[in-house]
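queue> pop job 88
queue> type: inverse folding (structure -> sequence)
queue> payload:
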């Protein structure tokens, strides 16, 4: 049986399990099934970086001149006529655990893009809810990336928004006045730091330290606000003469706000931090010049804004901006690792139109993403940047369900 066939068997088994649970006379367990069937196509004016056969679109590639011709090899138009995604999610509500209401969630996607089919395991966690607090154990959205803009792209604003689902232990305390205090230990799994061996969770594992997060959130009737800070320690290399690990420590902060009134909603988020490659941002770190074991993280600023208006017919727009701010020490350019390469800054402007009929949503989105590539300097900044741009047109139809 091929991989797709095995996934189909898994889906049928889970649906059958849901039917069996619902049929039991003991109603201590309740299962809700949800998901969608999605088909889409796109057109690009430039070769770009992305995943899922480029349906998960990120940003355009740098100029690549062919020797002797002056032709830019990445100046190529392309189109994908058809891509399909099926998502299944299962919410299981169970009996009390340690005096808390219990809930478990599992969610996964099955993709079929061009000639490629694969499985994406998105969420799997247990949630315990007490009267004034809750505990999440398992894989779900990173605490720095819980706010999701309503883009047509499945990249959900990345690389301007944190696209990261990770294993974690997160505790939320619900205070008076809509205030929530959060603390989490996050373990890299799907989304990893960048380094000498590319993307890998081994850098964090070698440090034997999870990412540590602390946050504050306030929720009002029409508006909300949240802020948080993240500390991480990774080990990208070992000192050959001693066999001891070398470490990179970094901190990052974020602030976000939302507002909703009637048919209008707006949300905004900004990040300022070091070495945030595990969040999907184009940042990294470099070996301190003249040192054999010291590393310096690169600082970056990333922000986005999304707003839309409407109900069944909805107009929306996403805007994002990223800037590399360099390092606080002189670095060795030959031993610097930046996810995305030598990027000085980038921007995105992506308006969309959505029309909903019944449980089906049709989406048309135009995406203009520009990147300024240049030469990396010893202070971690990038100079002499040349702008490259990609224009993307995306069409999608999404059939949603909940059982």
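queue> result:
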């Amino acid at each position: 049986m091929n991989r797709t066939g095995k996934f189909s068997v898994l889906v049928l088994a889970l649906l059958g399990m849901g039917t069996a649970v619902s049929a039991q006379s003991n109603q201590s367990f309740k299962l809700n099934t949800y998901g969608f069937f999605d088909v889409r196509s796109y057109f690009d004016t430039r070769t770009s970086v992305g995943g899922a056969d480029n349906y998960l679109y990120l940003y355009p590639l740098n100029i690549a001149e062919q020797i002797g011709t002056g032709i830019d090899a990445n100046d190529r138009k392309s189109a994908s006529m058809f891509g399909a995604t099926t998502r299944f999610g299962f919410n299981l509500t169970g009996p009390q655990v340690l005096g808390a209401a219990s809930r478990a969630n599992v969610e996964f996607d099955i993709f079929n893009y061009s000639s490629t089919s694969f499985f994406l395991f998105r969420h799997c966690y247990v949630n315990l809810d007490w009267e004034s607090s809750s505990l999440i154990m398992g894989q779900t959205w990173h605490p720095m990336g819980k706010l999701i803009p309503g883009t047509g792209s499945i990249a959900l604003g990345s690389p301007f928004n944190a696209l990261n689902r990770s294993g974690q232990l997160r505790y939320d305390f619900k205070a008076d006045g809509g205030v929530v205090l959060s603390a989490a230990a996050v373990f890299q799994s799907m989304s990893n730091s960048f380094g000498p061996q590319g993307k890998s969770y081994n850098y964090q594992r070698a440090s034997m330290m999870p990412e540590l997060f602390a946050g504050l959130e306030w929720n009002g009737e029409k508006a909300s606000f949240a802020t948080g800070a993240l500390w991480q320690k990774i080990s990208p290399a070992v000192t050959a003469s001693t066999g001891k690990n070398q470490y990179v420590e970094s901190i990052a902060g974020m602030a976000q706000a939302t507002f909703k009134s009637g048919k209008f909603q707006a949300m905004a988020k900004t990040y300022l931090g070091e070495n945030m490659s595990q969040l999907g941002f184009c940042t990294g770190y470099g070996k301190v010049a003249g040192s054999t074991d010291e590393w310096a993280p690169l600082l970056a600023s990333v922000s986005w804004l999304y707003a839309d208006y409407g109900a069944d017919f909805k107009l929306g727009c996403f805007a994002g901006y990223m800037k590399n701010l360099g390092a606080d020490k002189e670095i060795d350019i030959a031993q610097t690792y930046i996810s995305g390469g030598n990027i000085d800054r980038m921007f995105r402007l992506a308006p969309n139109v959505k029309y909903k009929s019944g449980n089906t949503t049709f989406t048309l989105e135009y995406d203009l993403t520009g990147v300024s590539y240049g030469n990396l300097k010893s202070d971690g900044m990038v100079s002499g940047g040349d702008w490259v741009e990609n224009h993307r047109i995306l069409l999608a139809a999404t059939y949603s369900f909940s059982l």
